[in-house]
Amino acid sequence: MLDKSPFSTISTLLDERVEGRSLPAGLYTREDVFQADMDVFFRKHWIYVGPECDVPEPGDATVIDIAGSSLIMLRDDDGEVRVFHNVCRHRGARILDAGTTVVSKLVCPYHQWTYELTGELAYAPHMGKDFDKTCNSLKPVNFRNIGGLIHVCLSDDPPADIAALEAVGRERLLPYDLKNTRVAHQTDLIENGNWKLTMENNRECYHCSANHPELCVSFIDLDFGFDPESLAPEDRETAARHEAMYAAKTAEWEAQGHPSAAIEQLTNCATNFRTQRLIISGAGESQTPDATAAVSKLLGIGRKDLGDMHLWGHNSWHHFMGDHIITAMVIPLGPDKTLLRMKWLVHKDAVEGVDYDFDKLTSVWIATNEQDGSLVERSHAGVSDPAYVPGMYSPFTETQLNWFAGWYVDRMRAHGY
What we know:
Elements: H1 10-16, H2 26-29, H3 31-41, E1 47-51, E2 60-66, E3 69-75, E4 81-85, E5 99-102, E6 106-107, E7 114-115, E8 121-123, E9 142-146, E10 149-153, H4 162-173, E11 181-191, H5 195-202, H6 208-211, H7 233-255, E12 263-265, E13 273-278, E14 308-313, E15 316-320, E16 325-334, E17 337-347, H8 358-383, H9 399-414
Antiparallel strand pairs: 1-10, 2-3, 2-5, 3-4, 6-7, 7-8, 9-10, 11-17, 12-13, 13-14, 14-15, 15-16, 16-17
Helix pairs in contact: 5-8
GO molecular function: dioxygenase activity
Cofactor: Fe cation
Domain Rieske: 47-152
């Protein structure tokens, strides 16, 4: 079957999507679809852009480039996080360069227009006595600080259902005290594939046992679905015992005041997210080579027996453990290029070489990301092949992918495609 997507409208491609199957090739590969994706999913929906601890002190600022926009996230003199467009109100020059910095005021290098950290224009030389500085403040960006995770929406009409994520996130992330963490390490990995393939790959673990030996030390493959008919009788018994253990452990955590059951807002919504407290395999403490804690100085309430609080959105995924946090942001760069930015957060007072070993902290997810990058590249090459036809998702291990594809089509339709 030949792929007719080069000659189809985006609407036709959306019509061609079949329930239970992957998307038509053009929805992964075409430039016009990529531009539509950027408009719909990265300008009109809430997106994760980084942790609050990226700007730990007043005057700290960092620049995030996403969806054609450059954003300044900073902490003002009163200790409040703010997000502005990185565009001078004079003639549009960039105010800050990429990366992190410390500032007392925001000064445009071009003509020295100067802004307070609250965004007000403080100084604009040679503009005349009738010039009104109050009309030329930096343009703010809609944002929400959800338990220490900063989400923004570039639209003036952001989806209201972010409220569900706020309510869940603030409660579930409270024990980890993200405000008192710091970034111990960051990696920027370019994956040679479409951003939806990156997200699909993260939303299933069908591939994990064959591709992620490091991660599978702490992950439990039964948690991610299985076909009971394919299991031997003894394996079915093992699965049943595991499910009973999970139910008991979830009930125990919740009785202690730590919400743990799965919460899913994945269909019939704008803001797509899922969260659940997962049991960590083996030693049960952290996602490290031996599943023991990497950091002796624990986060927040100081417990390393609360498993892995997992949270994902449509451009992010996170794992919260007692000793450290993994936070990942997906930034599309083109139809076939995606930036995966991952950060490892530890207690703000934790010292490398004293409180933790760097390799133990980072090696599992560095290896996992490299492995996933190769899989995404392999997938993109396949969907770009004329022989590709949308394949059937496993009803046992890829249900989340089916929901993601349906949500994607629904949101494109909601925005006129």
